[in-house]
Amino acid sequence: MLEIDGLHSYYGDAHVLQGVSLNVAPGEIVALLGRNGMGKTTTIRSIMNLRQPVVRQGEIRYRGERLNDLSPHAIARRKIALVPQGRRLFASLTVTEHLTMLKPASAKHGWTIARAFDAFPRLAERKHHRGNQLSGGERQMLAVARALMIDPEVVLMDEPSEGLAPVMVQALEGVIAALRGEGLGILLVEQNLYSALALADRIYLIETGRIVHHGSKAELEADPSALQRYLGVH
Amino acid sequence: MLAFQIMNGLTFAALLFVVASGFTLIFGLLRIVNLAHGALYLFGGYIGFTISKLTGSFLIGGIGAMLCVAIMGLLLDQGLLRFVRGFELRQVMLTLGVAFVLNDLALVMWGGDTFTVATPEWLQGAVVIGSLFYPKFRIFVLVVGILVFISLWLLINKTRLGALIRAGVDDLEMVEACGIDIRRVFLVTFMLGSALAGLGGMLGGTFLALYPSADAEILVFSLAVVIIGGRGSLVGAAIGSLLIGLLNTFGQVWFPQLAYFVIFGPMAVLLAFRPLGLFGKAA
What we know:
- The complex is a heterodimer.
- By secondary structure, chain A is an alpha/beta fold.
- Chain A has a single domain, classed as P-loop containing nucleotide triphosphate hydrolases (Rossmann fold, 3-Layer(aba) Sandwich), CATH 3.40.50.300.
- Chain A is built from 10 helices and 10 strands.
- In chain A, the strands form 2 sheets. Chain A has a 6-stranded mixed beta sheet, sandwiched between helices.
- In chain B, helix 1 packs antiparallel against helix 10.
- Chain B has one domain.
- By secondary structure, chain B is an all-alpha fold.
- In chain B, about 75% of the residues lie in helices and about 5% in strands.
- Chain B has 11 helices and 2 strands; from the N terminus they run H-H-H-H-E-E-H-H-H-H-H-H-H.
- In chain B, strand 1 and strand 2 form a beta hairpin.
- Classes of the chains: A alpha/beta, B mainly alpha.
- The interface between A and B is medium-sized, with 25 and 20 residues.
């Protein structure tokens, strides 16, 4: 469904992605793992075509259509949603406004306000609070709920477990798994290996802008040498 | 006498707010210090003057001024600013150039004479408040200023467009990544801000006057208001307007030689302690 083919991305003259290829199918969770500064966030930003980095080579296709030259909002309109690193909520908007700004409260189809509050009851309790008045877990829930309001088919998640308490990480894993159950494709960028291993169907390992390993979770678990080599875990 | 000066300060503040609210709206969301805002004010005044003279209606003049200046805003945004989006210095230089061009254009079209928009009959005369006789039109400006504040507050805080504008002020890139075509929000905001400059021109053209350098004067005041209030803050613009309006009025009465210092002196002190203005947030 989402295919990335030989992507080369640059920050100024820095050649950050050096030929990244990966794909995400409906109903699967694909994890992109790597240490800090290896190009995980750059991959996500390249897919959304955010202003930096600049993609100079390679192609991003979605359902056969080339995305490279589309603006971020046009890419989001094609039902590719972003849960960015650090949540990036809007500090001056209430919880409800985060959702209604993307879809009128009167909407009946797909993800509605009511459905979002059903899925995240904590947000319903906090609906009049502003983004910057929420706890870390609530912020992440809101970032996910906001992404869902565009009724995505693919969700790009950049380190969703970052800075969360273990109990919140578990809750979040439950949400992500449920989204897969509904047929969404999910690209999960993580530093938290255990969270990624708990969820992912397939795993890519990235090092200095190159995919150095690709396999199913079962394969990686059967032969963890790649994990040891590229992530330094034992 | 004191009450009279206070009213003068308040009504001038109301006019400043109408102009500066449009300015801060554009500054907050589009990150553009639109130096053509004063020229849009002047055009609003001249256009309102011409239309109200032709039709004999102050109201039609005012609506005409707002519509025409909103269209000028549309042309400025779509015709020029669109090509330098994201380059702050280029945007500022471009709007400065546009300000010069518009100023000369106004000189060609209306000449260098001073004009005053005729006060309509229903706003002539004075209102008696206790022992104070105060011009009805200035009270009208005060009411318009308050109405503009309430309408803008409701728009920004209670509507979906308002939520998009606030979200855009907070994090432009993230709004785009949520599937919103921010350029359309930009355009609506720019036209709204321009229309407010046009309305300000019509009001200012009636109780001040229209002449070739009136645009620079109002621009300097608006800049001071927005710098004091903080980028993109409506409440900040209101408080900044009150401060500048009152300081300017009393400065001219008490220290006529120091009138500008009375405004910009306190502004400099304020900025030393709050560099982002009273209600400003870091970008």
